[in-house]
Amino acid sequence: MSASVAAAAPKSRLDVVGLLSRWGTIASLVLLVVFFSLKEDDAFANSRNFINILNQVSILAILAAGLTVCLTMGLFDLSIGSIATLGGYLALRWGAEDKFGLGPYGVLLIVLLAAVVIGVANGVIVSYLGVSAFIATLATASILDGIALGYSDTATVQVGIPFQILDLGQAKFGPIPSPVVIMAVVMLVLWFFLERTQMGRHMYAIGGNPTAARLAGVRIKYYAILALSISAVCAVLGGTVADAIIGAGRPYGVGSVYLLDAFAAAFIGAATLRPGRFHILGTLVGVLLLGVINNGLSIMGAETFWQYIVKGAILIVAVFLSGTVSLRRQGV
Amino acid sequence: MDDTVGDLDAAAAVPVLDVRDLVKDYPGQRALDGAAFEVRQGEIHGLLGENGAGKSTLIKCVGGVVRPTSGEIRVVGQEVTLRSAKDAHALGISIIHQQSNLVGSLSIADNLAVGDSSSLLVHPRAERRRVREMLDEVGLDLDPRVLVASLRPHESAMVAVAKALHSHAKLVILDEPTTALSAEETDILFGQIRSLASRGTAFVYVSHRLGEVFRLVDRVTVLRSGRRIGTWDAPAENQPAILDAIVGDKVPQRAEQSNGPDRGRPLIEVRNLAVEPCADVAFVAHEREVVGLAGLTGSGAEEVASVLSGAVRPASGAVLVRGEEVRLGLPRRAIRAGIATIPKDRHREALLPGFSIRENISLASSGRFLTDPVSRTVRPDRERRAVTEAMQSLRVKATGPQQSVSTLSGGNQQKVVIARWLLEDFAGYVFIDPCAGVDIGAKAEIYNIIRARARAGAAVVFTSSEPEEYQRVCDRVLVFHQGRMVAELVGPEIEENAIVRSSLEPPAQHTLNQKEAVS
Ligand SMILES: Nc1ncnc2c1ncn2[C@@H]1O[C@H](COP(=O)(O)OP(=O)(O)OP(=O)(O)O)[C@@H](O)[C@H]1O
Ligand SMILES: [Mg+2]
User: Fold this and answer.
1) Do the beta carbons of residue B394 and residue B365 sit within 8 Å?
2) Per-residue pLDDT for A331 more than 60?
3) Distance B410 CA to ligand 1 centre (A)
4) Chain A partners of B404 at a C-beta cutoff of 8 Å?
5) Fewer beta carbons below 10 Å: N end or C end of chain B?
6) What is the spatial distance between Cα B504 and Cα B519, in angstroms, rounded to a whole number?
7) Sequence ranges of the domains in chain A
8) Which of these, B187, B186, B205, lies nearest to B43 by C-alpha position?
9) Do A9 and B28 touch (CB under 8 A)?
10) Looking at ligand 1, which residue's alpha carbon is closest to its atom 9?
11) Burial tier of B34 (Cβ tally within 10 Å: 0-12, 13-18, 19+)
């Protein structure tokens, strides 16, 4: 049946747009690394700086990976920045106070449970009250910001933080800093979750056609809650690592730095290898691309504003390419 | 009527549309391979061919939606290059594509006005009157301000028809316009086509409902693998040759006949079901039995089927599977109770657009490829094997399981939707118009699958918009009329005319009482 047709098809001419949209982001990553290596060979191209880059992007990567899970379902989680701030603050403060008498690991566990509670709240608002995730998480972000400021009296926690919590940001495994290890674990787990489990498949299906997914027996509300919980847990983890690196629990300004970059990384990822789809490997490429730009430009001594301009330009190109190709995939 | 058409043919020697050597390549696939096709003025020309033959691609090229790789298109003798749908429109070509070209988020009135650029300014009153007239012409009684997205499939199909017919085009092309239409609506459409054709409009008509085609068209062209196999005048007399041309060297399988009254225990029981327009419906589907629910659109047959699928929550009533009550209105519960449903509208209710065939098929039953029930990890190798098998058994024409469903031909998409529910064995199946848009070879295949599932012990509930299908698969048919079950046909009584007759005018004052239907 298909054999005769396939045989008749000629080797199609080079599909430039198709190739670019699949490999464009990876190619730019490689080109940037080569460019910075040639220009700043000593400062840029050495294993210490490469590990440094990974370390610099680790928090962003943790947040962006959680966000990717939400985006597969079409949920925009705008609360990850605020969740990160509040989570990091609580972890350090409660750790310093040994709030529950359970030791630092007990505190971490409780903070992660708090993340689940926030995620479930987000999910319930979205799926049972029918508020769009975009608005719902914008609202919870504001509430969480308020809680952080009120609970902290805007004071930073700096003393008495147990080393077990500080280790999340400052320990090293050989040459590898612990944030990089945490990033690797989070990415691996979420990659497996999205690619290899039925739950991941179902989330993608919901993103593709919610009506069809429901009729195929997929629990849409349940998955909305699950996805928003996963991104909340990642956010808390990222926020805690961020505060641990500095050794201070700050009640504001921690997570907001990463919010837009996390979206940028995920959307660059959706323009990588599988145009039009959010996926962990793509998000990792997006994160690295942003990291290399920041690191390379600052080593070159370029002023910071260039980082923003270059990032914005790359994002537009990436989203454009992934958009045109996903339309083509849909046969439009 | 036919005489007029003949005269016009003689008068207009130059074909309205003349397509030569048309080639269209897609990555890994050649959709058109030197196709040729002519349409004369005032004729109704049937364009036939199996799923994936290239019919829709040819039409998209003529409509300016797709750029052919090579070849020429002449409109009334002039060679043309079509860069957009607008170009085609300007040349007097109006098309209903297989996948609706209406905008769901706009009202009916706005949709009917879109693309009609006769005036920039809109005169609301005159406009509304014009839209009403257009709707009246096709027998639609709808408020023009209603959003197209909220219409039922047959209604939006008729709106598309109204739009195409009213465009004052030289050539109107209809790509499977009747898949969502009932018999009455099809008749209205055919009436409109004939009357416009007698005034000189040429029509191209694509459909897999061959009965319909032979009733309507003056000539037939058959495509296969992107090439023209032949063109026939007097199609009704040349039916066998045309069928051979469509099917090619594949021997079409004969659909199995029903296995008579050999049925098992009750499997699906419906009790006191009230769902618009039905007030109180009850029936039983047994093991090894295919029960047809027949009736005109809105008679209740399809509505009852969608309650079984869990898509619709009824006002009251109960459904029992093997004696256990199922919570209604939740597809998941229906599936867990063992009922699989092939829904009616594949684009809205079944397909994941832009996803691979593999992902589309394995959506419902990835249970079969899981390593364990806790982590629910997928085994890709097993998944691939099962999906490939399902594709082969339904003869899905594709480059492989990784091809995007959105690039499949319409009929092949439908096969994917059916394949989704064949990976696992369910106790009961609900097939809602499963053969919509499917070619004759694959129809026989689908009938066989339905019979095979019944033979293996499943209870099957079947509905169709083509009355002739019931006699090919059903053991028993329940006919609905205005929300009541008015007739039960068993075995040899199941016959197209009997079904149509009782669905139009039921035996006087006779509602089938529950005892009879349940027995
Ligand atoms: N956008 C696309 N990308 C890749 N292949 C395509 C695309 N569109 C169509 N094809 C392929 O071209 C072939 C012809 O498809 P087409 O839609 O013309 O068939 P058809 O005759 O209309 O079939 P059906 O009766 O099922 O509607 C199919 O094999 C299909 O997979
Ligand atoms: Mg088609």
Assistant:
1) no
2) no
3) 7
4) 329-331
5) C
6) 25
7) 24-324
8) B205
9) yes
10) B407
11) middle
pLDDT 10s digits, A3-55: 333 333 333 445 677 777 788 888 888 988 998 888 887 888 888 899 999 99
Domains of chain B are: 3-247 (3.40.50.300), 251-338+427-519 (3.40.50.300), 351-425 (no CATH)
Ligand nearest to the CA of B58: 1
Q: If you measure from the C-alpha of residue B30 to the centroid of ligand 1, how many angstroms do you get, rounded to a whole number?
A: 9
Q: Which residue owns the Cα nearest ligand 1 atom 31? A: B408
Domain A24-324 sits in CATH at 1.10.3470
CA-proximal residue: ligand 1, atom 8 (nearest): B407
In angstroms, rounded to a whole number, what is the distance separating the alpha carbons of residues A323 and B72? 31
Among the partner-chain residues A8, A205, A215, the one whose CB lies closest to the CB of B30 is: A8
Choose the weakest-confidence range: A98-107, B174-183, B401-410. Answer: B174-183
- State in Å: Cα B52 to ligand 2 middle: 7
Pick from B19, B26, B247 the residue to mutate for probing ligand 1's pocket: most ligand atoms within 8 Å of its CB: B26
Q: How many CA atoms lie within 13 A of A280 on its CB side?
A: 21
Give the separation between CA B24 and CA B31, rounded to whole angstroms: 6
Residues with CB under 6 A from ligand 1: A 331; B 26, 29, 31, 49, 51-57, 98, 397, 407-412
**pLDDT digit string (tens) for A148-185?**
999 999 999 999 999 999 999 999 999 999 999 999 99
Which pLDDT score is estimated for B509? Answer: 53
From residue A149, how far is each of A70, A122, A250, B212 by CA, in Å? 27, 20, 10, 72
- Tens-place pLDDT, residues B256-268: 555 555 788 999 9
Strands B278-286 and B266-275: antiparallel
Mean of pLDDT values over B352-356? 93
